[in-house]
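Researcher: Structure prediction, please.
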Amino acid sequence: MFDSCQKSTGTGYTTTVALLTVAFIFLPAMLCAGDFSTYRGLQFGMNVPAAAKQTGTKPAEVRTAHERPALIQEMEWQPRSRFLADPAKADSIQEGLLCFYNGELFRIIVTYDRTKVEGMTAEDMVEAISLTYGAATKPSVEIAYHSNYGEVAAVLARWEDPEYSYNLVRTGNRSSFAMVLFSKRLDGLAQAAIIEAVRLDAQEAPQRDLAKQKRREDEERLVLDKARSANKPNFRP
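Model: Predicted structure follows.
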């Protein structure tokens, strides 16, 4: 065994050295890159009850944004540590929004507390986040900010792997920063479903308005009929 190890020279030795060199080159990036599949215990793909338990939210508080062609749900989340008596120990996140596609968590939007990032530049934020998730890219693109409202925001920096994407943006009023995190596979399916849901809603809007008007007229007629039934027998000229 020892002799065979000693004889591993020449081409084999050169190959080993080359592989080690490549490994050392990429090792810092590998060590710096975070796990994108989970954020603060929230696993992309987890269901609503599991996410509610993790965040301390009641499943009943989840709201439905769209019902077809896929079920799109949203649930607000506020970190428990945000309410600590000591402001210095309070969470940097002010609030979060969890989005579900057919019951699977596909997107997380976290908004940072304005007082916790006050004075910090975009570069400061990128530097701090990169300590956890590795080097960032800065693509010149916009991203859907709220799935149900059509709001978009310019991406300041992006951290990603083949399956997940983390994006730093400014909030709508530009007073703070937010992170838009999503599963690429589920988010692609969800965005396509949302676009189709909006199209269907617009297409059926006139019919819905007519139905709503008819219901209102029927309700008004019932009120008048009830009043007529009570007043007519007792009317005295």
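Model: Residues 62 and 75 are 5 Å apart (CA to CA).
Researcher: Thanks, that helps.
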